[in-house]
Amino acid sequence: MDVLSDAVTGMRTGLPHASRTRLRAPWGVRFRPQQGAGFHVMLRGRCVLVPVRGEPLELTPGDMVFLPRELGHGIADAITTPLAEAFAGGGDGPETEMLCGAYRLDQARLHPLLTELPDVMRIPATDALRGAIDLLDRELGAAPGPGSDAAAAALLDVLLLYMLRAWYESRPGDETTGWGAALRDPQIMEALRAMHQRPEHPWTVQSLAALAGLSRTAFAQRFAATVGSPPLTYLTWWRMTTAARLLRDSDLPLRSVADRTGYATEFAFAKAFKREYGTAPGRYRGMREAG
Fold it and tell me: Any residues with CB less than 8 A from the CB of 193 and at least 6 apart, and which?
């Protein structure tokens, strides 16, 4: 089980979607804030991305940007072009072609791995990313083949993981804090993998430190410096995130959900869940089903 994959799975609330867009200048579109993340990949031509915060970013063929929390942004052929509510490229100017995609993520439960990311990320073009983009572009073509919908959804999941991996692998090797450092620290990753694989286990700081091969104090300090919270705080967060996913995506009884997330009784689980989410687990499941 992989921590990066778990982080994405734990936040997902629906299927991703993407489209291939071809426009002739002048054109401009405004993307409103949403509960998720988005990306743009430039295939041909050039454009300008205008974020809510920060400076405009010029994009040229091969460029890829990821917006981990969609605060809203604009994208246009030029900084002076007005932004419309939908793509409408009816001009006769230079042509631009791009892939645009979006992911539905629970912004209230963003994994801390994503919360430290900037609003707009220019992603390094790795070989793996280019391969995934080429395959996705083919599935979104004018004549999709049988199974293209399923293939595109799977490729979008792969693409999201590759984007995050490329970003974190591009971080400076001498970082000592943050998730960039955590993902490169084999001892901290050993503890994280254990918590992710076995959230039901009665972990203590001492047992996690022993697993990492560190003293209790050294482990606790290094974990907090990289992950951003103490080990047991992160464990509780992951248990509750796992519980919410089980309530949302399965019909398991509450007793089984409690067992799988490390709570000895259904009552103890319900109390912890309500403290974290502000509602009882049964009501949470009902709200998700109704939505």
Answer: 1, 2, 3
